[in-house]
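Researcher: Go.
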Amino acid sequence: MNDPRLLAPFDDDVVRGVAGTNSVDEEQLRDALADHQRTMRENPGVENLVYEWRKRFDDAVLHRTPATFFMAVRETVWEEYGTHLGLDDYLLAAVVAVHQEQVLRETAVDSSAIDEDAVALVVSRPSSQ
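Model: Structure:
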């Protein structure tokens, strides 16, 4: 079972809806989302990733809260994660769709600020314990 804190930035209804729409197993999708969040935290770390993406992409940070960054990155970032995590095309598309939908639901994010060549990415920050 995954650490529920890894899935905290995602609404259950978003995950469930995307799983159904994309015909992927919901538990497999949750596992992939958690693996992705864990990977970002561990290598090289959330703050380092956000710093790198801010340097590489214009307006990469759409919004931030103490717990979460809402980002806009290029599709190549997702392709790299898909390869690294060993996700097939269908599961990767579902993971990306969850991130996209979650960013669009965030009322503090102006969706018109997302470039047409950008893809949403939600990055949860580890809680300080």
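Model: The first helix runs from residue 12 to 21.
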